[in-house]
Amino acid sequence: MKDISRIGILLVSSMTLCAPPLSAQDAGEEDATVIVVTGEGLSETPAAPAYASQEISREEIVSSASGRIEDVLSGVAGFQQFRRSDSRSANPSAQGATLRALGGNATSRALVLLDGVPMADPFFGFIPFSAIAPETLGEVRVTRGGGAGPFGAGALAGTIELSSAGLDDLGSFGAQALVNDRGGTEASAHVASGLGGGFGSLSARWDRDPGFHTTPEADRVPATARAAYDSYSVQARGVVPLGETMELQARGLVYDDRRTLRFDGADSSSTGQDASLRLVGHGDWAFEALAYLQARNFTNVVISSTRFVPVLDQRNTPSTGLGGKLELRPPVGEDHVLRIGADYRRSDGELYETAISAFSGNVTERRNAGGTNSDLGLFIEHDWTLGALTLTGGARIDRYAISQGFYEARNAGGILVRRDDFADRSGWEKSFRGGLLYRLGDTARLRAAGYTGLRLPTLNELYRPFVVFPVTTNANAGLKNERLVGYELGVDLEPAEGVELSATVFENRVEDAIANVTLDPVTRQRRNIEEIRARGAEVSAGITFGQLRFDGSFAYTDAKAFQPGADFDANRPSQTPRWAGSATLGWRPADGWLLAATLRHVGDQFEDDLESDVLPAATTLGVFAEIPFSDRLALVLRGENLTDETIVTRNQGGSIDLGTPRTVWAGVKLGL
Known about the structure:
Layout: H1 2-17, E1 53-56, H2 58-61, H3 69-73, E2 80-81, E3 97-98, E4 110-114, E5 117-118, E6 137-144, E7 158-164, H4 167-170, E8 173-180, E9 185-195, E10 198-209, E11 229-242, E12 246-260, E13 267-281, E14 286-303, E15 310-316, E16 319-329, E17 336-356, E18 363-386, E19 389-411, E20 416-421, E21 425-440, E22 444-455, H5 459-463, E23 466-468, E24 471-474, E25 482-493, E26 499-520, E27 523-545, E28 548-562, E29 579-587, E30 594-602, E31 605-606, E32 614-615, E33 618-628, E34 633-640, E35 648-652, E36 655-658, E37 663-671
Parallel strand pairs: 4-7, 24-27
Antiparallel strand pairs: 1-6, 2-3, 4-5, 6-7, 8-9, 8-37, 9-10, 10-11, 11-12, 12-13, 13-14, 14-15, 14-16, 15-17, 16-17, 17-18, 18-19, 19-20, 19-21, 21-22, 22-25, 23-24, 25-26, 26-27, 27-28, 28-29, 29-30, 30-33, 31-32, 33-34, 34-37, 35-36
């Protein structure tokens, strides 16, 4: 896996050093051609605003109270991870991303892309948020609802597109170092330069913290540990022009994230090495070709909550993700945009774990399981602009395969005690989406959309059981694909300069939804249930008034899980709030200054599908301040959860975990 990261970084370096000159003609010629390199993919189509979406600017991205990308995304009401903990105090495998309360388990139902590349772990489906440094991003776009375009087979609840910052945003050099009141540190730096008509950048980030106690004080024992973490990520990126209308983009990412949760020895790790190439053509026949390769791994040790010794060592979970896409936009007239293409994703992975006796410390069983999932999709989408009206319609067909699945267990002596080889499955699935956008002058837009979507069960859901002691959740190799059917109506208003308002009502239904179904007090299993239905409304506002900027987002979602005859029928899915909202007020009193405060509320949630244990509502206040000493040096102050709100992130029969307490950061920022 180390070889993959080295290849990606060397590829970027060689591209930037060997890039062609900016102009194809001699510099002395007056009519020299100017080639503009953006580092971006193809532009959004005219009908993209027909689907409920929200954009997050670079200023918002780099000014969050925590400095974490998942905190930035939480400013979009309706975004959530499986648990309320962020990537510093949650198990990595619980970091699935979803929208519109289409939750119920820890897998991502939203498609997360970084420069067009799917970021979900090939085995688990979680998002490695700690690997994504916010300071390297230029923009985030969140689109709610199912997708039928590129990689639409993963966009069940929506799409989160992360775009890397370009040379203008990065500058030639930047660095930041902060320390918090627990002794934790956050350090990042980047260098960037225009090279041979394109540009290249190298960035790194290191976060470490002795952590806070997730266990309430009254429940702590000598084995109780703080939620310590130590993580780093390194990214290299290069963009070079190829002729007058094409550019080649390369990116390499290496990360390592290690955490301790709840008890001494309850250690987990998540590592990865990613590499990708993207070729973009901006000519009359616009196109985008992408290829990527990912090598990931995960480890985790489960500690008994009664004897405080290891009972399960999930020692190795290597996985590989590879894929790509090709999208073509032929010239079909100025009022039309046609997208035709194909995409492919393949995930391979295995788990290796050792069961250990809590009484003797001896190995009781060694387990190995895994398989391969693949999806080949063909898609087409057409936008047609008729004056103030824009129509859009798209379809895709997916050929999926779930194959080579197995589960094997051997006793301590290596004798086989169980071997299951699961039948290969494959088939075709079709998805559609369509919408319209009607502009009422320059101040209002009406929109409507309907869509269907698809998600394959992950290798984790199919083959890997897991334990959050004392509850065991079993895998299910017979899981079916999830299907989404949804529709929405919305309006976008710009009644005055600097005022942007948006409102959407929706209904989304996930058929054959995969949920962690409770079988008894200590056993759950992943199963398909009839459906999860979510109905609700989303409202957002952005208002600029002189030096002040207000951004707010609010969501109400009535989500229910249906399974006739089951104890949880018509209950709210686990870990899904009914109410969620965020409001940020920023002030720029002078050049280089930024003062911001964010108030965020999450309504109450239930720990499980039976609604037996409640996670109470929580309201937090975060602040950010950047105060310049000079044009290049600034003081940075951040405060998380300043009111020290008690945030319950887990409640299993009274066994409770807590989220981030009041945390204060201070440091300096340097830019050239």
